[in-house]
Amino acid sequence: MANTPIATGIIGLGRSGWGIHADVISRLPDRFQVAAVYDPINERAGEAAEKLSCTACASLEALLDRSDIELVVVASPNRFHATQAIQALEAGKHVLCEKPFGFTTADVDAMTAAAKRSGVVLQPFQQRRFEPDFQKVKEICDSGRLGRITFVRICWHGFGRRWDWQTSRAFGGGQLYNNGPHLIDHAVELFGPADPRVACKLQRSLASGDAEDELIVTLTGPESPTVTVELLATAAFPHDRWLVCGTAGSLRGTGARLEWKWVDWSGMPERPQDLNPTPDRSYNRESLEWQEDAWEADSGADGGAGAPPAWRPAAELYTDLWGAIREGRPQRITPEQVRRRVAVLQRCYEINDIPFPEGARLNGQRLREAQPAEKDY
User: 193 preceded by cis ω (within 30°)?
Assistant: First the structure.
């Protein structure tokens, strides 16, 4: 059993289910194999059946009834994630749930409880935690090279219109719960273990629907850096993805290249406060001895919002999931970790007085779930 590929069923064959999950699974044939798929659009299901040599199921229930399926990938539209994940967990399947990992902490709690009852693995799909640029940023911040981190800005800037289901609140669309979970995941990791105070502005600028296509989220706390996330659809002059400021230096850069410089204060004279007038009415100035370093990605960088995600971070998450299922190894990204991110996303909706989409779970109560229609996927 340990050397047998994990038979996998995929729910939803859109950009994520087909373009990410089916693709990555095909790259890991010794560990995963697509055995069945379900999509209410028959053409998509038929294409998958032909190209992946798998079964196209006529319904979600038919997929979950298959005894050979060990793992279910939930890659349906946002508002179905929690309810469909719980259905799969209650059927005794391991589950990999796309972002958003629910709309509320109650969603996460319900999924986690279902996984524990069935004794299966529940894996949030936060693959961008494994992106090389983020890992390098985290390494530099943790090293102390930049001193105490005081400020972080994460930017996903672009310019463009969008008019698909991700622009509709009724389907759980909008950039906060679409690309926002990746940015908030990075932000919370860099913020640290404390619970942040959250400020958030959401606005629709160019999108055709009623959901936001721009967001600014700021996390603050007394013992933590201020972390700001910007996801903009109107930035014709985009800023670097990363800006990190600390008491000894700073870092800046993109997914492809980072650079940082710092001062070794131990080699500099102490500067106790002096309340006497400065000589010649001048400002305080000193010559700083900067040290510098840089990093470049060894492969193509991910383009951020709107660009196809790189496959390697997803493959790393799938490999980690294989170890959890086949070898009982601890997950590196757990539902409990991601619950903190969902708490931030939930707070952003609450601050902006935005209702959660029908089908989400609120306060542990299941709302009426509409049946998925073809346009949902």
Answer: no
Count other Cβ atoms within 10 Å, centred on residue 236: 9
pLDDT at 359: 59
DSSP conformation letters of 167-206: G-GGGT-SHHHHTHHHHHHHHHHHH-SSPPEEEEEEE-SS
Report the residue count for the chain.
377
- By the 10 Å C-beta count (0-12 exposed, 13-18 middle, 19+ buried), 239 is classed as middle
Q: Is 368 exposed, middle or buried (0-12, 13-18, 19+ CB in 10 A)?
A: exposed
CA 225 to chain centre: 20
pTM beyond cutoff 0.70: yes
Overall fold of domain 132-269+285-296: Dihydrodipicolinate Reductase; domain 2 (3.30.360)
Cα–Cα distance between 96 and 115 in angstroms, integer? 11
Contacts of 106 (CB under 8 A, 6+ apart): 361, 362, 363, 364
CA–CA distance, 159 with 173 (Å, rounded to integer)? 18
Q: Which amino acid is at 61?
A: E
Give domain limits for the chain.
6-128+310-334, 132-269+285-296
Segment (H or E) for 63: helix 60-65
Quote the Cα angle for 315-320-326, to 5°: 120
How does pLDDT run across 148-177, given as a tens digit for each residue?
999 999 999 999 999 998 999 988 899 999
Q: Would you list the DSSP string of 12-61? A: --STTIIIIIIHHHHH-TTTEEEEEEE-SSHHHHHHHHHHHT-EE-SSHH
| Homologous superfamily of 6-128+310-334 | NAD(P)-binding Rossmann-like Domain (3.40.50.720)
Cβ-proximal residues to 283 (8 Å cutoff; 6+ apart), any chain:
none
